[in-house]
TrEMBL record:
Family indicated by similarity: Belongs to the glycosyl hydrolase 5 (cellulase A) family.
PANTHER family tied to this protein: ENDOGLUCANASE, PUTATIVE (AFU_ORTHOLOGUE AFUA_5G01830)-RELATED, GLUCAN ENDO-1,6-BETA-GLUCOSIDASE B
Domain of life of the native organism: Bacteria
Keywords associated with the record: Carbohydrate metabolism, Cellulose degradation, Glycosidase, Hydrolase, Polysaccharide degradation, Signal
Species: Bremerella alba
Gene3D superfamilies hit by this protein: Glycosidases (3.20.20.80)
One GO term describing the cellular component: cell surface
Gene Ontology molecular functions: beta-glucosidase activity
Residues making up the signal peptide according to the UniProt record: 1-20
UniProt name for this protein: Glycoside hydrolase family 5 domain-containing protein
InterPro entries according to UniProt: GH (IPR017853), Glyco_hydro_5 (IPR001547), Glycosyl_hydrolase_5 (IPR050386)
GO annotation terms (biological process): cellulose catabolic process
Length: 365
């Protein structure tokens, strides 16, 4: 009788078991190296992402994920409703490294919770690392390190992150650093570059002393060191680096991080574009410089300096040579922006509306 009941119970549950959520397939580069695929699929995968770099109050995710986890869950639902499939999260080095060799296990655990949330919501994560966005949070011990020691801490950071996340296909990629630069600018003895934007330093130097080396030599050594640290523990997750497209500033500029001498360990190209008013053609020309035979993702995009119509035009003209675009979501919905009654709120609401329309149009193709 027990066997009979067991069989009956199994038969009753069988239909429900088939409804269980299938695990996310890993995103890989296609065999010809030109686009992305979900593992085992033939159809190209196009990234429709958002940068989730801070919340509506300007707080970085590590500043509130222990106390306000429910907010993150709600934001991921809202991101999903926009039609996005990738969330770019900006991880801060000071929150993950207690010292040069000791990682922060509490925040690594919370990161694995975030990965699980992404799995549950069927969203992929772009984990961008080594952030020092809030200068006041950067420890003195790190700021005073020489280049070689600083790079070693960065390698330790990435090894810890990759070890924590390697088993999840929801992690789309590791972005080594947001907008790394080499020389140039003022205060060249400082690691953080320029004036803060919204209180945040998004640009960071990888060296403050070239010591007779050229830019490509420095960049190649840095990329290899960090990529090697990741590959020690994770041989699958894609690696990239979010670059400033200097070809948009100087039309004859050539890529450094995506030059043949540097880009070997990088699986795809990530560049940040903010087209200017009446200069969509120039932006497209600059974008083509980064079409090097690897998948190409516009990793940051927003109509900051152009109209919404020009932004849509740029994306339409960029679509044939790109494999994804990542805009922004800061924890405020279209409806909430509209209720603000401000010019800025109206612009942000309109862009979210257009972004959602673009993702829906892509889904029907």
């Amino acid at each position: 009788m027990k066997v009979t009941f067991a069989i009956l119970f199994a038969l009753i549950l069988a239909p429900f078991a088939s409804l269980a959520q299938e695990p996310l397939p890993r995103i890989v580069v296609s065999n010809d190296g030109k686009d992305f695929r979900q593992e085992g699929a033939d159809k190209p995968f196009y990234v429709w992402g958002v940068n989730y770099d801070h919340n509506r109050d300007g707080k970085l995710i590590e500043d509130y994920w222990h106390d306000d986890w429910k907010v993150i869950e709600e934001d991921f639902d809202e991101i999903k409703s926009l039609g996005a499939n990738v969330v770019r999260v900006h991880l801060q080095l000071p929150r993950f490294m207690k010292s040069a060799n000791e990682s922060n296990e509490k925040n690594l655990k919370k990161l694995t919770d975030l990965v699980k949330l992404a799995e549950d919501k069927e969203l992929y994560l772009n984990l961008t690392g080594l952030g020092c966005y809030h200068k006041q949070d950067v420890p003195t011990w790190y700021d005073e390190l020489k280049e070689a020691d600083r790079w070693q801490v960065q390698a330790n950071f990435w090894k810890a992150i990759a070890k924590a996340c390697r088993d999840s296909a929801a992690v789309f990629c590791y972005d080594l650093m947001n907008e790394p630069v080499l020389g140039g600018g003022a205060k060249t003895d400082q690691w953080l570059v320029g004036e803060p934007l919204g209180g945040k330093y998004f640009v960071q130097r990888i060296t403050i002393d070239a010591a007779g080396r050229d830019n490509k030599e420095i960049a190649a050594a840095w990329v290899k060191k960090l990529a090697d640290a990741i590959r020690e523990v994770d041989q699958h997750t894609l690696i990239t680096v979010g670059a400033i497209p200097w070809a948009q500033v100087w039309p004859n500029a050539k890529p450094v991080f995506y030059s043949p001498e540097v880009s070997g360990p990088l699986d795809f190209v990530s560049v940040h574009f903010y087209p200017e008013k009446d200069k969509v053609d120039q932006a497209i020309s600059a974008l083509k410089v980064y079409d090097i035979g690897k998948p190409l993702v516009i990793e940051e995009f927003f109509p900051l300096k152009c109209s919404v119509e020009e932004a849509v035009q740029f994306l339409a003209e960029a679509r044939p040579i790109t494999d994804g675009v990542t805009s922004f979501y800061w924890g405020t919905t279209q409806e909430e922006y509209e209720e603000e009654g401000s010019m800025q709120g109206a612009i942000l609401a309109r862009w979210l509306e257009r972004f959602q329309a673009l993702t829906q149009a892509e889904a029907t193709q």
